[in-house]
Write a structure and sequence with these properties.
The complex is a heterodimer of chains A (337) and B (292). Chain A is of the alpha/beta class and 337 residues long. Helices cover 37% and strands 19% of the residues of chain A. Chain A has twelve helices and twelve strands. In chain A, strand 5, helix 7 and strand 6 form a beta-alpha-beta unit. The radius of gyration of chain A is 20 Å and the shape is globular. Chain B is built from nine helices and nine strands.
């Protein structure tokens, strides 16, 4: 190897800021290949991001079922719809912003309206990219939620990436998978399943409930630890299916604990927090409530920890949210008395 | 014109509807379909009459001569696919489907009435004869590319036909789809450009000049065939050439005249035209004569 020339080892091309140089694990991509070996109807489409969407293995191992759509997401969505109408189950891949915001009309008309079994798979959810506003999906859940027939699944972390494939296949219609790749080696990972339409109680607590999705699930667990130090027992729910929402679980926990805080790597408008607010108000639950997420603002490029700190996507922000929500709950009870 | 079948039918498949290759018979059908377009649009006094009359020969040649389909089984897996990307040109589309037996003739009575599955913009609400809900312009060719890719992968014999409006070419997605079709050498794909030079804002070239159109499609990897889209013999010959090409998708630039067949309507650019009763009666009168 001539010094100064890039070798294959230097090709990163995965759009993730990370400290390790080892190849990233491919929990989603390997699960997709395994599923495709079992089901010949599965095809894979990708808009020039085989590495960053973990579909490079599919491309290599099942090339006759891999369609390189090029940098043309709207057309990719239409092609996937045509393939689904001819009996195939397309998984199409790009970043979250491009399979939603960029191709929204195509997704609405060609996939959601006919209810086709197309799985829209996006990476780089929320603020998790150095590339800034153009690549930050802070409105994708809001848009996909507004589409009839659409299911939205966001794994809590690397431990649920493999399960996302099974969860998507479990839905007979369209699914939006919103995923964050691991940003380092995950040697001791314990894989967990996703139950479609069901929230997962990770921690019990009588004083309040944090409902979180995606990377905010681990922040929620940290927040619950900190609140426990302050003498507050707060439960944590992972909500990997944002639509359809596990409304029964949310209503039950809200009734029992009286305080609900939502936490998401997304705008507080239209995402998980909005969905839960709608649910609770329609069920007329008296609850202290706060939403943690991107506060109706555009962000900028930066490392994920930096952006989480700057835009309030942290355990501290959730603790603050809980204190606000609990105070509101207390004042409601005072006013009621 | 030869009456021989286009190709050997796949054995074991249901026998598709018999296809007509006799020019005089097709022209007679087209004349009746034109009358039907006027009759469908007349009750509301407003609609896509100009586009329908202009595209009648395309629809007639496609549905009665070219497409392998089974009216009794609209979801027959090996049927040729047809996508109306513009989607609003429904008076002629529904009239053709009814005449071909793909929908009951009585269905036309509900055309554009509230609650009817025959909406002015074709939706799959009306059943599998609408292969995809288009009308948000520029999307039909992408879906067709996906169908053609799936057909090739599954080794199915069907072909995919798309009717695209010439104004619709202004949508960027059309060119994404064109790139994909050319790149994949989808010879089982046939695009019909209904080149009537009309869009909402007037003459297409006065809104955004799309020329040179043939060069554009050729440069994207299509075999391009420019024909008179109101000449039945030219349409049939163009389909035949498209079928013979096993290397490239085909783009048939079918130059059509809006209002074709009714001299009092011919050439009048009116995207969603008013058709008062006297004008409708006159058009029907003009369309009642003998075939040329």
């Amino acid at each position: 190897m001539t010094a100064g020339l890039a070798s294959a080892d230097h090709k990163v091309d995965d759009f993730i800021a990370r400290g390790v140089t080892a190849p990233l694990p491919r929990f989603y991509g390997d699960a997709l290949v395994a599923a495709a070996r079992r089901d010949p109807r599965i095809v894979c489409l990708c808009a020039d991001l085989p590495g960053p969407t973990e579909t490079d293995a599919f491309k290599q191992e099942l090339p006759e079922r891999y369609i390189e759509a090029g940098i043309a997401e709207a057309n990719m969505v239409g092609m996937a719809a045509g393939m689904a109408r001819c009996g195939e189950i397309p998984f199409l891949h790009s970043f979250c912003v491009f399979v939603t915001r960029r191709a929204y009309d195509q997704v609405a008309n060609q996939i959601a309206y006919p209810g086709l079994p197309v799985k829209l798979v996006g990476f780089l959810p929320g603020l998790t990219t150095m590339l800034g506003v153009s690549h930050q999906a802070i409105d994708d859940i809001a848009m996909m939620r507004a589409l009839p027939n659409m299911t939205i699944i966001e794994p809590s972390g690397p431990e649920q990436l493999g399960a996302a494939v099974a969860a998507a296949l479990d839905v007979p219609g369209p699914v939006y998978l919103r995923m964050k790749r691991p940003d380092g080696a995950m040697a001791s990972l314990q894989a967990r399943t996703i139950q479609r339409g069901r929230g997962e109680i990770l921690r019990e607590g009588a004083d309040g409930t944090i409902v979180a999705c995606g990377l905010m699930v681990s922040a929620a667990l940290q927040a619950a630890d900190r609140l426990a130090v302050q003498g507050k027992q707060v439960g944590v729910v992972n909500m990997p299916t944002i639509k359809p929402l596990d409304t029964e679980l949310v209503i039950g926990l809200a009734r029992r604990t009286g305080v609900v805080v939502t936490a998401e790597n997304h705008s507080i408008i239209g995402g998980l927090g909005s969905a839960i607010a709608e649910t609770l108000l329609e069920a007329a639950i008296p609850v202290g409530f706060a939403r943690v997420g991107v506060q109706d603002t555009f962000a900028e490029g930066g490392t994920t920890p930096y952006l989480q700190g700057k835009y309030g996507l942290t355990a501290e922000a959730i603790v603050d949210g809980f204190i606000r929500a609990a105070a509101k709950r207390a004042s409601m009870q005072v006013n009621h008395d | 014109m030869s009456a021989a079948p286009h190709r050997t039918e796949t054995s074991g498949n249901p026998q598709p509807a018999e296809r007509i290759h006799d020019l005089a018979a097709l022209k007679t059908i087209a004349r009746e379909l034109r009358r039907q377009v006027v009759r469908l649009v007349a009750p509301t006094g407003q609609g896509y009459v100009q586009q329908g009359l202009g595209a009648t020969d395309i629809f007639t040649s496609l549905f009665f001569s070219e497409l392998r389909l089974d009216p009794a089984d609209p979801a027959w897996p090996d049927r040729d696919r047809f996508l109306l990307s513009t989607a609003h040109n429904t008076a002629i589309f529904y009239a053709t489907l009814a005449a071909r037996g793909c929908i009951p003739a009585s269905a036309l009575e509900s055309y554009c009435r509230d609650g009817s599955p025959l909406e002015i913009n074709a939706s799959e609400r009306m059943g599998p004869v609408v292969e995809a809900t288009c009308g948000s312009l520029g999307q039909g060719l992408s879906v067709a590319v996906g169908m053609a890719l799936a057909g090739r992968r599954q080794r199915r014999p069907y072909r995919v036909h798309v009717v695209l409006g010439d104004g619709e070419m202004q949508e960027g997605q059309v060119w994404e789809a064109a790139l994909a079709a050319g790149s994949h050498r989808l010879s089982n794909l046939c695009l019909l450009l209904d080149y009537n030079r009309m869009q909402v804002g007037g003459h297409v070239d006065s809104v955004v000049d799309m020329n040179p159109v043939a060069d554009k499609w050729a440069s994207f990897g299509f075999r391009v065939d420019t024909i008179d889209g109101n000449d039945m013999a030219q349409l049939l010959a163009a389909f035949e050439r498209a079928r013979r090409d096993d290397q490239k998708p085909t783009c048939i630039i079918a130059e059509t005249l809006v209002g074709k067949g009714a001299p009092s309507l011919e050439g009048i650019l009116g995207h969603n035209m008013r058709l008062p009763p006297d004008l409708a009666a006159r058009a029907l009168d003009e369309l009642s004569g003998e075939d040329a």
